[in-house]
Every structure is written in C-alpha cells, then in structure tokens.
Amino acid sequence: MPRRDDIKKVMIIGSGPIIIGQACEFDYSGTQACKALRRLGYQIVLANSNPATIMTDPGMADFTYIEPLNKETMEEIIRKERPDALLPNLGGQSGLNLSSELAAAGVLDKYGVKVIGVNVDAIKRGEDRLAFKQTMESLGIDMPKSEIANSVEEAEEIAQRLDYPLVVRPAYTMGGTGGGFVYNLEELRTIVARGLAASLVGQVLIEQSVLGWEELELEVVRDAKNQMITVCFIENVDAMGVHTGDSFCTAPMLTISPELQRKLQDYSYRIVEAIEVIGGTNIQFAHDPKTGRVVVIEINPRTSRSSALASKATGFPIAYVSSLLAGGLTLDEIPYWREGTLEKYTPGGDYVVVKFARWAFEKFKGVEDRLGTQMRAVGEVMSIGKTYKEALQKAIRSLETGRWGLGFAKDFNNRSLEELMEMLRWATSERQFIMYEALRKGASVAELHERTHIKHWFIEQMKELVLLEEELLGFKGSLPPDELLIRAKKDGFADRYLAKILQVPESDIRGRRTELGVVEAWDAVRVSGATDAAYYYSTYNGEDRVPVTQNKKKIMVLGGGPNRIGQGIEFDYCCVHAAFALRDAGYESIMVNCNPETVSTDYDTSDKLYFEPLTLEDVLAIYEKEKPEGVIVQFGGQTPLNLAAELAANGVRILGTSPESIDLAEDRDRFRMRMRELGIPQPDSGMAGSVEEAVRVAAEIGYPLIVRPSYVLGGRAMEVVHDEEMLREYVAKAVDISPERPILIEQFLQNAIEAEADAIADGTDAFVPAVMEHIEFAGVHSGDSACVIPPVSIPQKHIDTIEEYTRRIAVEFKVVGLMNVQYAIFDDTVYILEANPRASRTVPIVSKVCAISMANLATRLMLGAKLPDLNLRRRPIPHFGVKEAVLPFNMFPEVDPVLGPEMRSTGEVLGIAENAGLAFFKAEAAATPPLPLQGTVLITVTDPDKPGALEAARRFVQLGFSIRATEGTHRFLTENGVPSTPILKMREGRPNIADAIKNREIHLVVNTPGGKRSLTDDSYIRKAAIKYKVPYVTTTAAAIAAAKGIAAWRQGRGEVKSLQAYHADIG
Question: What is the rounded CA–CA span in Å between residue 461 and residue 248?
Fold first, then answer.
C-alpha cells in the first residue's frame, strides 16, 4: 500500500517530562516518528512539555509546541494548526491517555482529526482492564483470575473470592504506578486507594498472584495488511513480582524452549490482530515452569521502554517502522537487509543482549530498597556480548556505580551465608551482588533458586564466574597464568576488576593480555528497515569483522551512560548535537554509549555507533581501532569527564577544554584559590580531610553551612547542616572523607537569590546567551529549582557582573566549548558558588528559549572556529521561559518530599509566555498538578519564612483565595492584617491538616520545613499533598511566584504559540 494521501499534516503528542516509568525512550521514539513521517512528506505538529529532548528542537518538527500536556491545551493547538491526523502511540502512556481523552471529549471529531497507528477502540481494548479481559476471553487466551474494582469496598469483596496474595493493577497507567502486591486486607485497602487515585478512569484490576513465575515479553509489529512479525523475544531473569522496568533481562530468550516461544508468538499475533494495532505492541506473559500454564499479563498498544530496548537489541527501529506503517506503508514496502523486505523479518544474530536497571535509592533519605510491581529504576544500560557471561559483566561495568564486576560490593563479602540468604528474602537493587557472594560462601544453586525464583541456568552461569574468580584470587599480588587470564577475559571480567581483586596495576593486566593477542574484536548489529546500516559491539570471543574508514577525519563523542538523577537526557541532547555538527563539518562522527533509551544510540544519529560501556578499557580499544583526531568528553556529563585524565594519560587527544582545566574546576580547594586570585567573591569556606578538621573549620565559619565532596554531579552527598551534631552525622554517614578526598565546608547564604549562566567559549573569549534566575533561594539544588530566563528581579548591574565574571572565569580556565557557572546574590553582592567547564542540564533550555544551538556552536569551537566566526550577539528576548523540575516523590511515598542541595528531580518541563507569571503558571500546569484558580491555600511556615509567607498570603487574599494557617502562622498573619482561619496540626487533634487535605478542602499547600524538628514534624503534610494530588510548594519564593502566576493566568493566557514563532520574534 502506498503512503496515505488523505492526510497532509500529522500531530504527535510527546510523553512530557522524564519520570520513573516513562523516560527518554519516548524522546527516541518521538524523534524517530518525526523523521519517518517527514520522509513520507507529511508536515509535523509536535506537542510536548519537555525542553530537554531532541524531539522538541525546532528543526525536528514543522510546528513545535512546548506546552502543558492537557486536553484544553491540545484542543487549542488542534484548533490553530488543524492537523489531519493524530499519531497517539509514540508518546508513552501520557500521549495515549491524552489521545483517548481528546477522542472521548469529541475534540477529534469536531476538528475532523483522524487517529492513525492505533484506533481509539484499540487503546481501550489494550488499556482498560475490563475490555482487555473480555478480549482475551473471546480469544480463549488464559489470564490470571481477576476482577475489576472501582472502589476499595469492591476490592475487599473480590479479595475474599480470589484469596491472597493478590496483585493490584490500575488501568491507564505506566511503570506500575499505584499498583503492587498485597498479602492482607490492610495492604489491600492502602494499595487499592492509591491505585484508584493513579488511574485515569478510577479502575483497578484485582488479580490472582503469579509471583515467582517466569516473565516473558514479545515485541510484535503488525501492518494494515495484517502481516505480523516478532521483532524480539525478551526473557526477564527476575521472576514475576519485580516490575519489568526493574527486572534484569536478556534477548534472545536463553532458557525458553522453541515450542513455548512459538506458543507465545501465536498468542501475540492473535492478540494484536484482535486489538487492531498498526505498528509496535509489547505483550507480557507469565509462564509457570512447574505446570506449563501460560497467562497473558498485559499489553502496551504503543511504543514502550521494552520496545526501545528491543529496537536496540535487534537493530529493528520499531518506532520508525511503526510511523511508516501509520503513514500507510506496509511491511513488504520497507527494506530488510537479510531477505529483501520486512514481512520476512525474523530475529537473529549470534550475540546476547543484557539489560540492567539503574536505581537512585541513595538520593532519598528513608527510602526502602525493595523492588515490586511499581517501577523504581531511573535508567538502564544495555550490553552486547557473544555469551551471556560476557554481556552480563559488560552490563555491570556500564552502570557507573563504581563497580567493575559482581564481587566485593558494599560489605556483602564480609557477611555470613546466613545473613546473605536473609538479605535475599526480598528483591532489592543489590540482589545479583548478594547472590554472587552467597555462591562464594557455599550457597547451592537450588537454594538460591528457591529464595529468588531465578532459573537454575542463570544461577549456574553466575556460579561459574564465582569459581573462576576464586581461581584468580589464588594469584593475588601478581598476574595470573596466561590461560587463566584468557579465560577471565572471555568470560567478561573487566581489566579494572581484575586489577582490583589481584591488587596489580590495571595497565599490567592490559599490557599482558595485549601481548597474548587478547584484545577486543568487533562485530555488527545490522539495522532492519534501512539500507546498509549497522552499529557495533566488542567481544573477546570472536574475530574482528568491523572495517575502519580510511582517509577521513574522525571525531569520537563519549555519551552519558545510563540515565540517573543528576545526569539525564539533557546530556544526551548535547551529544546528539555534537554528532550533527561533526557531520555538517565533514567529519565522521563516532558515538560511544550504552544507554538503550536515547537518541544518541539511534543507528543514524552518528556515522558510527559503538554500543559499549564508558570505561577506560572499552573507550581505549575503540580509540586505538578508529584512531580519531580527538575525543569530545564535555557533553556526556560527569561520566566522560571522570575518564578524561586517564584517557589523556594514555595518549588520547581531548578536544575542547583540557583535562587540567576540568580538574581545576572540579577540585574545590584549587578552584577556591583561583577565584581568590581573580578577586571574585565566594562564600567563606574551608576544606577538611577528617572529622576533627571539619568541626574546626565549621566553627570558624559559623552555622548554617553547606557541605559537599569534590568530583560529583547532581549535588551528590551535598547537604545543609545546622549544627555540629548534624555535621558529624553527615561525615559519618554520607561521605568517604580523607585527605585525598576532602570535603568543602562553605558558609550557607540564607535567602540569597541564586542565578546561573551558561557560556560558549573559544579559549580566549566567551559569549553568555542568557542569565537564569532561580525562583527558589540558594540551598535548593539548581536541578530542582524553578528558574526563569530572562531574570525578573535581578538588577541589571548584577546581571552585568555575572556576565563579566563568567567571561573572566572562562578565559582564566581556557575553556573551549561550554561552561556553566552558578552564583548567589546576597547583601547586594554577587558570589560565585561553582563553575563547571562542561555541558550543563540547562543547555537545552537556554537553546530553546533564546534560539541559539549552544551544543552545535560549542562543537564548532572545539573543531577550531573562533567566536568572531560565529557572529553571535546578545538579542533581547521578548518572552519568558520558566523551567520547573519534576520530582519522583509519588513513587517513593515513604520519603519526605522536601528540596535541598542534593538533586532529586528526574526531569523538567518548560513554560513559555509573554510574561513571567504566565510562563510560571504554564510550567506548573505541565509539571502537574496544576495551580488552582480559586479555593483555599494552607500556609504553615517556619519563623524565618514568615515575612515571605506574608507577601504570598496578601497576594492570595487579593485573588479571592481563603487562607488556612497553623497556629503560629495564623497569629502572624492576623497581626499583619491578613485574614486566615486556624487549622490544627496532626498532633493537636481532629479535624486537622491531614483531614482537610483528604477531604479536598485544601487546593494549594505552602509549607516550609526548617531545622531538625520540622523535618519529622510536618513531613505528613507534604506526603499527604502528593498522595491526594494537591499542588504544594516548600519555599515562600515559590508561593509568591504561584500567586503571580495565578493572577497572570486570570488576566488572559493568550493564544498558544509554536517554538518557531517565538524564535521568529527574537530580533
């Protein structure tokens, strides 16, 4: 079938901000969709609220709307742009749910918008638990016994019929949001209430537990001719009970019989034919190995996290192909490298892929490290090897957790077998590492299978690694015999890990194996749906089959590795732009990364992609093979920066800012001295290499203080301390302090205005496109603070000072490329807080608000251009952009959702408007839940915050809001002429704050925690606000901004405007 001619303009709804359960795999799928549909000649209208994505770059679609993803805004865009069609299944659950809402509200019919790719009825059959159940019954496909509940009371009745343990699965959600296992009535009531609140339609499925069964997934593609292919068979190593996003898995299936795989394929084809999806669908099954019973768990009639993994595991770009199919093509019209066209596709390849999740439990005080049906991972890595063992070991060293292998993690090796087996009672992020030590201590494969439900074969493979490691440990202090070293390398042991356990230099390991000819060989993953495309992986178990381009200039770009808090999609954005800029400049671009969710690991982003861990061993091997002119390390966040010095020591040419300058900025003590020489003010500070030294330095400066280690990203282990007891606790618990790794102790500038500037520099000069003003005061990590471009309250003299200091620092540090500098304005003085000579997470935001492609320009400077060649000039920005952070506290209900100097946000949104108040309101609406336009505001603040709360309260009263306040705040407001009604705290009686929030009597919470007592005393207020989806702010600055935003929205919101139109207005 040829492309559809009945449509000219297609609208794509993106997935919004990065959250747990919905991450950058949807930037990847959305970007692919834009490419595919433009290739077919369609105009693209893109709606997404996430500024950090490649997808929302103005060149990706014809009309890009960075707007809140809600029904009202989408209708405005449809009214303005009049698209002919809507593609709903490439924007994750957000895009799918929003498309369903638009259809149900009659918006699509009203404007004559066709739904392509997956029809609205199909969404219901796949997502609505009752409709899905009925469809499966009609097909005769088994499901776990289950019933639908629309209330807690209904769930209780169902539980009596089905018996515990049970699984609660909310409808129309992703990442297992709101669901979980329940073992008793109390847990049922809690989780059903949570699930009903999370569900778009207030519906949950109460399902018989299949805990411990094998979890198996298929990725299937269907076209309009009803031709169907299976792209990938995925085997989850963790059994049912751990969410697939947290489970570690392999492709292909390694322990599943061909007969069972054929049965799963038959079921999958019957399902997608009945659901009528055009494009990709993910189907999840559970298999009981004892009885052979197979049940279908759920399907996703859209691209998903698993489809991104399947795409990268097989070389089959599911989102790209799905978009071509939605545009009218069929599989027999799309090329396939092996047999002509795609309807003949079969998954193949003589390699094994392992996916391993990356968590961030260390970022959340009080969180329990336990895995269940609600996803908790913030990212993942994918590795490719010739054997399972090789791929597993590569995955572990890709995680960037400071572990190079499975052994000797934390203190597990020092624990008894009994303790280790007890630790395995529940699935945790550490389970594989604990199992490794349990095997070392003598646990049997059968015992571990009994405890974890992981199949014998996988545990036996791990046991073989343990036995080999024990042999190696017999040669501690020297190189092992050649035969043993060769075996270790073939089984995936990293040079760094061998060096660590043998206590020899890593260079000795590398040198000896190189002499033996044991070096990385390379093989290809061929790409389907494209002509003559591939990407590459290393192995110690094969021959080198990858040719090298001769007579062409090459540059290598190091990616950011797995997504995690502090290092997210913004860095991938920069790496992708570097690849584009290199191609434009006539270079062959070589990308190295191991993150399957990203655009940087798309097969056509760079000229050559190596899907490899970002370690010295792996990067050096690629460098020695390709011999590029240089390597770009400053775009991938902290990951490649931490490699820069070692790479340079091994003869690698680092492009842009030198490793020496990077170290100068990262080493807190050296940086402090250099700022003093430049005469740039800094908060009083000192370095400490021991607990006693820390206490002495703190006493000299005076509390409160901010303490942080060197060489970290995302404010890792950064904290505000109020007294000596807190300082001693911080040093004991949070950091590994030593004279070699000292901590910086710095005066905390309370209520200072924080600002930051990104600069593009050529080594002799710098250009600052914009200064950003933070809405939260200093003390909240810049990644978690809302910020506005251009500034709204910083005097021009301070903006000029910030620009001057930024230029001076860039020149002093000989920065070539990008640099981010953070400042605090306190007592009419600009203080520097820190400088980072690398890409920052604000680069995409500045680029989009100011219409300047910073990463592209920085790449050109690294290639030798000078700033005057780029003709850059400061242009007045006639609009405002407000970035707001999106926090994952709903996934961690036990954690106090309070902001501080350690970053906690997983993503961000952007609001753009003609005035700052409106931009803030739009940013809050995009971050959800939106600010109320009327109702009651609860204000409960600490004494130092009362003046700020007074201004906010006055503004809310002027807007017609009622104020409820706790005793001290109520008294203060009354004394200052602001009317409020008192409300009881939890410990003061009933009805109290918690009751009022539950009863929907409160529409906005303003609560500032302070000092030790309130951190425990009032966390229930913030937790209740999250649970009942009441917007809340924890700083008075944000409360004032909220009041201004509500006022601006009421005065008129103007019409929606594309990013391209905003850019055209910049002079």
Answer: 15
